[in-house]
Amino acid sequence: MSGVLLALSAGFAGAQQATAEEMTVYKSPTCGCCKVWVDHVKAAGFDVTVHETRDVSPVKQQAGLAPQLASCHTAFVNGYLIEGHVPAADIQRLLQEKPDALGLSVPGMPAGENVPGMEVPGVKAKFDVLLVSKDGGAVPYSHYE
Q1: What confidence tens digit (pLDDT) does each residue in 96-130 have?
Q2: Which residues neighbour 114 within 8 Å (Cβ) at sequence distance 6 or greater?
Q3: Level-2 CATH architecture, domain 19-144
Q4: What are phi and psi of 117, to 5 degrees?
Q5: Where are the beta strands (DSSP E) in 15-144?
Q6: Which of 16, 35, 82, 122 is the S-S candidate for 75 at Cβ 3.0 to 4.6 Å?
Q7: Half-sphere exposure (Cβ direction) of 104: Cα atoms closer than 13 Å
């Protein structure tokens, strides 16, 4: 019985030591949809640090993001760039698959009940999450309707 308790306590200690992925988000202090998206990724288990800045453009440029792939906020997690209203499930998939890429982007600001941070009840947005390559190109990663 003591061996079982020891194994259970070791498993519990290991579970307590598991940490959430750390994410850093750059956003405007006046952007409400960005705050809602941050709440979405926090609810999915990410440990989020937010840096508020009036101009996020330099962060995007320094990361190598092409202007046509930009949105309102920029995040970084485990070496990947996350641009815009990317669903947490796609970020988790990216971190599992670990592709050789710059990161993910939802360009612009699609609005619908299926867009985290841009929810509009009763409306489903048709949008793609793009996998952004290190050379600036992008291909569809996930599609939503």
Answers
A1: 999 999 999 999 999 999 999 999 999 999 999 99
A2: 124, 125, 144, 145
A3: 3-Layer(aba) Sandwich (3.40)
A4: 95, -15
A5: 22-27, 47-52, 74-77, 80-84, 103-106, 127-132, 138-144
A6: 82
A7: 26
pLDDT band at 4 (very low <50, low <70, confident <90, very high): very low
- Roughly what angle, to the nearest 10 degrees, separates helices 88-97 and 32-43? 50
**Burial (CB count <10 Å: 0-12, 13-18, 19+), residue 77:** buried
Q: Which residues pair with 131 in a beta bridge?
A: 104, 139
Count the alpha carbons within 13 Å of 6 in the hemisphere toward its beta carbon.
3
- Any idea what DSSP says for residue 68? G
* pTM, full prediction: 0.86
